[in-house]
Write a structure and sequence with these properties.
Elements lengths: L2 E10 L7 E10 L7 E6 L2 E6 L12 E13 L4 E10 L7 E4 L11 E4 L4 E10 L1
Antiparallel strand pairs: 1-2, 2-5, 3-4, 5-6, 6-9, 7-8
């Protein structure tokens, strides 16, 4: 399958008092294979039998997320600083199914078991000293 992982950070006007840092992380990957199977009884007990011959006949959704960070450090003294930050996770609010129930003998076959978390914002303050 494919995978994408790009990250970067840039300082905007670091020499100015209002300067700040901006960071971004773009992540993407092909959806994982969904191994649909039947539970069968055999001489040795119960056995899971794959429904198709190809492992990747069925796949979960592709996942692409963008995370952003805005950060401003303020020096309170020569040895003390405060860093204020705003983080955004899954900024594009991608809604992707990560897992499904793949046992076809059950009434819940194909039901969604896990979704990608929705967009989340976080404010932070960090105290630093040297």
């Amino acid at each position: 399958g494919w995978r994408l992982d790009l990250a970067g950070r840039v300082r905007i006007a670091p020499e100015r008092p209002w300067g700040f840092d901006l960071a971004a992380h773009l992540f993407g990957r092909q959806g994982t294979p969904l191994l649909y199977a039947f539970e069968a009884r055999t001489e040795d007990g119960r056995k899971s039998v794959q429904a198709t011959r190809k492992v990747d006949s069925f796949r979960a959704d592709d996942v692409v997320t963008l995370d952003l960070r805005l950060e401003k450090e303020i020096a309170a003294s020569s040895s003390l600083s405060l860093t204020f930050s705003l983080d955004g996770f899954n900024v594009l609010d991608e809604i992707a199914v990560l897992q499904r129930d793949t046992l076809l003998n059950e009434g819940t076959a194909g039901w969604v078991e896990e979704l990608l978390a929705p967009r989340v914002w976080r404010l932070g303050v960090r105290l630093g000293w040297r």
